Amino acid sequence: MFSDAEDDEQIIERVAGLDIGKAELVCCIRLPGNGTGKSGRARRSQEVTTHSTMVGSLAELANRLVGLGVERVVMEATSDYWKPVFYLLEAHGLDPWLVNARDVKHLPGRPKTDRLDAVWLCKVAERQMLRPSFVPPRPIRQLRDLTRYRVDLVVAQTAEKNRVEKLLEDACIKLSVVASDIFGVSGRQMMAALIAGERDPKALAEMARSSMRRKIGRLEEAFAGLPTGSFDDHHRFLLTRMLARIDQLDTDIAAVDAQIEAHLALSLTRPPGWTRSPASARSRPRSSSLRSVST
After folding, report:
1. CB 199 within 8 A of CB 226
2. What is the pLDDT, as a whole number, of residue 154?
């Protein structure tokens, strides 16, 4: 048996949807209109405009949204293009939401343009059919940038070390067979001597330090190919550049480590709640921003 049901649709009164590209974005703003339509629903006023993604244009857009009393600005996570828009709107006191593009699905066969995308996003957002993705506050974003950059530096350094090992193999130098770490104190001194012109296997082996001295005999075998000219000017040039690159990466990693430590130390002195961004500090959704529309 069927029974009558009355559904109330919660509408965010003042909302904006942004379709963001690299050079420009399309903004759709929907506000309360005048009166009701034929279906009995309250009318909605809509404006669709195009703006540059340069800071000046974004600031003008943010000021306009603030002036119109827009309570929520929704945008898709498009590459990294959303970041300057999100951060600038947040700095102006707005409530930007970043949503996953998979949650904003278009109907099959529906025309797809930047303008229609912005309108569709705005309509879906005003009916609260989207959920925001987590965007960490600025201190966490900075710390994350540092840790990710450190990972990239370590990966680059590892790749450079692998190139050094391959270069030595190409020169018939089997140092990596004897030494577990050719970039230790002994290994670096031996490679520096190679660059300086030393070609005597015994002299190179005698540079071993600490526990490596127990392997002097094997080290002489590792450098046995040097008298034949296997390590030439070509290898010396490449080894010089590679070791310099490794040393520079060591310096960069140390600098990033110091910056990470500074951020972590600062976090210990922050008051409770310092990680909350202006947008996340506000309740979502705000009761004053919703109204019931009878269906």
Report:
1. yes
2. 98
